[in-house]
Amino acid sequence: MSDQPDASRRQFLSRGTAATAAVAVAPGVLLYDFARARPPAEPASSAVRWGLLIDTTRCDSGCDACVSACREENALPLPLKPTDPQWIRKVELQQEGSGRKVSLPMMCQHCAEPPCVDVCPTGASFKRADGIVLVDKHRCIGCRYCMMACPYKARSFVHEPVEDHSGATPRGQGTVESCTLCVHRVDQGRAPACVDACASEGHRALLFGNLNDPDSAISQRLRSVASVKLRADLNLDPGLSYVGL
Amino acid sequence: MTKRLSPRTELRNYALLLAAGVLVAGIGLWAAHFMESRGHIVTGMNNQVVWGLPHVFAIFMIVSASGVLNVASVGSVFGRAVYKARAPLAGLLAIALLAGGLAVLMLDLGRPDRVIVAATNYNPTSVFAWNVLLYSGLFGTVAFYLWTLMDRTMGAWNKPAGFLVFLWRFVLTTGTGLIFAFLVARQAYASALLPPLFIVLSLAWGHAIFLVVQHAMLRWNAMELHPGIQKRLKNLLGVFVLSVFYLVAAYHLTNAYFARQSAFERYLLLEGGTVTALFWVGYVGVGTLLPLALIFLPGAGGRRCVLAAALGVVAGAFSLLYVFIIGGQTYPLQIFPGYRVASRFADGAITAYAPSLPEWALGLGGLGIAFLITLVGVRVLNFLPRDVPGQPVESN
Questions:
Q1: A142: nearest CB among B110, B121, B341
Q2: Which residue range forms the structural domain that includes residue B341?
Q3: What are residue A127's phi and psi, to 5 degrees?
């Protein structure tokens, strides 16, 4: 038996192993900038600032996978009435004059200078060190001042008793709530439910990542395409940016 | 002069008024319980109109609580005897209105059972949190002021206490105006004009309430107001009504001038349905032109005219607050300038709002609480304004 077949087999095995490893590891490497699970005892760090880049050119007007995924993840009721919660909603735009149509998801913009946090009398609205804006449901007195202050209409008030408590986030009648950026998933090293749902539909309109890491996919994309922040005139420095507006 | 009622009839009438006050306040408390147990789903509010009719009542009472102290301030700070005779009643009314307004505000919370959290967890950047201190401070300063009026041994403290109340109520009304002035999100608010507007509103509304209560008390006791005092008090109301009109006009005209605000102004002043009608008929007609006519037209300005004018100012106050608070929320937020917007969350659309019965009951219940405190207070404390016969009425 010659050495040749052995050599080619070794070569095949080594290349095959490398390729398998690459296929298995690459997504992890790509996702590494946001996929590090944070140990429960470790506080959120300001070294990270979570953000989303929403590419409206990839967002399909007929698709609401992100909205459905959010509803399932957080056990929210179907939004049938103006009193029902909508942590994320689809907005359809038509440019005046040109008539150009744009579809996009709208949710809490996780501002660096959140007006909801400033105005909250009890400190129930707060911003984590990593930029995620949340409501402490045990401290919220239901004054709704944060809803008056939010320029994005991103917050909902729980108008009725909550029947379904199977969601990932606690909910309670008489308190205010909004998109948590799926903080429970982020802390486990996963992306928000809306991001995964959009990717599953093949649109990949939502890119999640660490804005403080210049090498993260979101930072690189933000450097390469023109994007805008909503109500930039208010200088609230939202964590969300939009492409194609 | 009206004949004084017999003691028996007077007691019966007083008991009837007391019962009416208890009934209205009780229905208000029931409404609050109903809202808390069922949730705000039983109100007309939603995720776009988050502050409804109870806030109209609450802010009316809180702003008026500050303004009703006008006569006390003029009496104690500027040393006018005619006004000082009315200071105890003004102080009592301030406490009553503030209590009624705060009761509505607290009972309209999503979790009124957690109101203590507002005291134990204080966010210093929140103007709401500042107001918690300002409101409780007004109770304290007015109570101290009343003490200096009622206890002769405290007489030396009267002027400093009056000055403290004078300062406090200006800061308090500024704070109430800032609740809206600090809201950058919505078209109606975020204006530095709002704190001074709220101060002038408080002067007019508080003075109007004072005149109504004083009228009722004098009628009850079969007393007449000195024509000179009557003239000065009604002229003061006229000046306040004109001042409010000036600032309201400045607010709307400057908004209409800004291209980014003109659609919002068109909605409020021309196309807003109930909101538009309340502005023109309620505020401009009943709340401004009618009182001015009743005060200043030749032949007008009598006792009944002044009472009608004051009631018109109160009706105008509710109309203006409804336009400001509800109209400011039913108009959609401008998140995407240059685009027509649609969504299943009322983006780009005018939101419908109709106050429900529990909201009316809660708001009126707050007025009932203020009424009860006033009714019991004037009886127990004997705060009827008594002018010294023959005392000259200073001209100014």
A1: B110
A2: 10-381
A3: -115, 125
- What is the three-class DSSP state of A127? strand
The band of A203, judged by pLDDT with boundaries at 50, 70 and 90, is: very high
AA letter at A160: E
CATH number at residue A229: 3.30.70.20
Is residue A80 included in any domain, yes or no?
A: yes
Q: Cα(A178)–Cα(A85) distance, rounded to whole angstroms?
A: 8
A131 in a domain, yes or no? yes
- Cα→Cα distances A170→A76, A107, A143, Å: 11, 18, 19
- Chain A CB contacts of B346 under 8 Å are 82
For tokens 């659609």, what's the residue?
Answer: B263
**Is A17 within the bounds of a domain?**
no
Closest Cα of chain B to A209: distance in Å?
A: 24
When CB atoms are compared, the residue of A83, A94, A122 closest to B46 is A83
**Chain B residues touching residue A91 (CB < 8 angstroms):** 336, 341-343, 345, 347
Tokens of A110: 């996780």
Q: How confident is the model at residue B135 (pLDDT cuts 50, 70, 90)?
A: very high
- Residue of A122, A138, A157 to mutate, testing the B interface (most B Cβ within 10 Å of its Cβ): A122
B235 within domain boundaries: yes
CATH number at residue B86: 1.20.1630.10
CA–CA–CA angle B354, B357, B360 (5° rounding): 85
Residue B163 burial (C-beta neighbours within 10 Å; 0-12, 13-18, 19+): middle
Structural domains of chain A, count? 1
Tens of pLDDT along B139-176? 999 999 999 988 888 888 988 999 999 999 999 999 99
Q: How does strand A240-243 pair with strand A50-55?
A: parallel
Nearest chain A CA: its distance from B11 CA (Å): 42
- Which of B360, B280, B396, B383 minimizes the C-alpha distance to B68? B383
Neighbouring C-beta atoms of residue B207, cutoff 10 Å: 26
- Cα–Cα distance, A46 to A50 (Å, whole number): 10
- Residue in chain A closest to B186 (alpha carbons) equals A151
How close is the nearest chain A Cα to the Cα of B107, in Å?
10
d(CA B237, CA B10): 31
Number of domains in chain B: 1
In chain B, residues with a C-beta closer than 8 Å to the C-beta of A155 are 47
Select from B172, B214, B209 the least CA-distant residue to B387: B214
Local structure of residue B342 (DSSP, 8 states):
E
Best interface-test mutation with A: which of B333, B343, B351, B356 has the largest number of A CBs within 10 A? B343
Indicate whether B395 belongs to any domain.
Answer: no
Does residue A202 lie within any of the structural domains? yes
Distance between CA A194 and CA A198 in Å, rounded? Answer: 6
Identify whether B394 is part of a domain: no
For residue A190, what are the domain limits? 50-243
pLDDT at A32 over 90: no
Q: What is the DSSP letter of B395?
A: -
Nearest to A186 by CA among A4, A61, A75, A35: A35
Across A23-32, A141-150, B267-276, B366-375, least confident range: A23-32
Any domain includes B5:
no
Task: Note the residue count of chain A.
Answer: 245
